[in-house]
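User: tokens in, sequence out, please.
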């Protein structure tokens, strides 16, 4: 079933505007202009609506962030399902390139870089998905102040993302008061809790907040520098990726300091570890490498971009096509550089990066928000051991001890339920869990939305 034609959508929006008052008609007009009629190479059997465009987050600097909203299919209750904001990390990587195009979005790009096919385990079957390219300088998001690309950091990224949300909900008032969640992976392990904290704190005292924030979900997430380091080096050593001597050197040289700015001795130990690991993909240690793109990223945790399989080259072709950019209402200012999956400038010049997200976790757990953390267990960049050490540092009471969860009678991973937090592993998944284990990640996402623990029975 095809999405409703523009005239039907206009009629629908008119009724919304009539109910809200005529003050909102102009903003709803922006919503109509953002509607995607059809993407180049799109399959014919598409039964959901899409919108994309820009939201200005700083008028003086000229910063504007690019979004892509992919709604649930009409026959799956798009108008009642929750809204989920998805953020990729890096820092400096595109949520369009990774989250939308090769993880949880409804489309995959074919090797020719011009045609799309459907993802049977797309998360928009369960929720309306809002992908955001953040901060300015990432993907199609831009700033008219060139220095912004060299001064991006955690604090401004969170503030701009919050401003984006406030303005976006004005453009899409039908999503006001809808259940809202924030999700992401990797360095979004910083973005997600930081934005969650701002939303939570600014909702205080509001009886019926527009942003009806319910909780967050993060995967293979950078969380706490000390515990992440300890867990990462332990993973490398226990999986036979590095020598005993290098493991000892890493434990000593990288024992303190920031992961974004390691010491000279720590960098030297990391180089030794990289040499010993050899030509593997650290984001997915048991799958083949893509040698032609390996040079696009470093092999150091927290300094790297995002999982970089060969599918990245398909994204680089597709999202640079003029007809695709036109359909997405993207690159309207003619940015003076091609669209890239990750911005080297933004990532290399990253400014502020707090050492730990654990204080934010404690605050939001105490607030009663739903918090789930998941981890693919074949990722050597932000591995499962790193996440377990970070979670353990929260010293939460265990509600349900470590147990295997099942999918069609097979172990899909393991889980532990704490008071205020649920942790789930996905067996055989790398850094981008939905890319490697799409069905299992779909089950995980459904359980998160339903706030039900992962199935402990082989009958599921």
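Assistant: Sequence out:
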């Amino acid at each position: 079933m095809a999405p409703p034609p523009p005239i039907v959508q206009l009629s629908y929006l008119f009724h919304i505007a009539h109910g809200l008052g005529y003050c909102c008609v102009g903003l709803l007009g922006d919503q109509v202009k953002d509607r995607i009629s059809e993407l180049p190479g799109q399959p014919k059997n598409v039964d959901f609506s899409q919108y994309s465009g820009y939201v200005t987050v700083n008028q003086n600097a000229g910063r504007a962030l690019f979004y892509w909203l992919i709604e649930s299919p009409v026959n799956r209750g798009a108008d009642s399902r929750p809204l989920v904001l998805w953020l990729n990390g890096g820092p400096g990587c595109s949520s369009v390139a990774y989250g939308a195009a090769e993880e949880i979005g409804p489309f995959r790009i074919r090797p020719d870089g011009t045609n799309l096919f459907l993802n049977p385990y797309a998360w928009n079957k369960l929720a309306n998905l809002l992908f955001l390219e953040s901060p300015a300088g990432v993907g199609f998001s831009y700033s008219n102040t060139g220095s912004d690309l060299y001064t991006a950091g955690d604090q401004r990224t969170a503030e701009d993302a919050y401003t984006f949300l406030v303005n976006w909900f004005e453009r899409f008032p039908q999503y006001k008061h809808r259940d809202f969640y924030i999700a992401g992976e990797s360095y979004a392990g910083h973005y997600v809790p930081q934005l969650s904290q701002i939303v939570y704190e600014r909702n205080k005292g509001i009886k019926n907040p527009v942003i009806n924030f319910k909780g967050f979900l993060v995967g293979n997430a950078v969380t706490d520098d000390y515990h992440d380091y300890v867990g990462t080096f332990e993973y490398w050593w226990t999986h036979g990726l590095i020598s005993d001597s290098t493991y000892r050197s890493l434990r000593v040289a990288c024992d303190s300091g920031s992961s974004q700015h390691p010491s000279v001795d720590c960098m030297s130990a990391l180089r030794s570890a990289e040499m010993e690991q050899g030509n593997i993909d650290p984001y997915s240690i048991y799958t083949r490498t893509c040698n032609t793109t390996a040079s696009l990223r470093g092999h150091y945790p927290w300094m790297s971009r995002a999982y970089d399989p060969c599918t990245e080259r398909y994204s680089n072709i597709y999202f640079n096509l003029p007809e695709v950019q036109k359909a997405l209402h993207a690159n309207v200012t003619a940015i003076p550089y091609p669209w890239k999956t990750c911005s080297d400038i933004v990532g290399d010049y990253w400014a502020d990066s707090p050492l730990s997200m654990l204080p934010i976790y404690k605050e939001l757990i105490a607030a009663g928000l739903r918090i789930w953390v998941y981890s693919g267990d074949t990722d050597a960049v932000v591995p499962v051991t790193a996440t377990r050490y970070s979670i353990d540092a929260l010293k939460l009471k265990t509600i349900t001890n470590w147990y295997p969860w099942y999918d069609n009678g097979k172990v899909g991973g393991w889980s532990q339920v704490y008071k205020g937090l649920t942790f789930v592993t996905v067996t055989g998944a790398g850094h981008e869990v939905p890319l490697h284990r799409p069905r299992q990640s779909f089950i995980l996402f459904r359980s998160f939305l339903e706030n039900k623990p992962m199935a402990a029975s082989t009958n599921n």
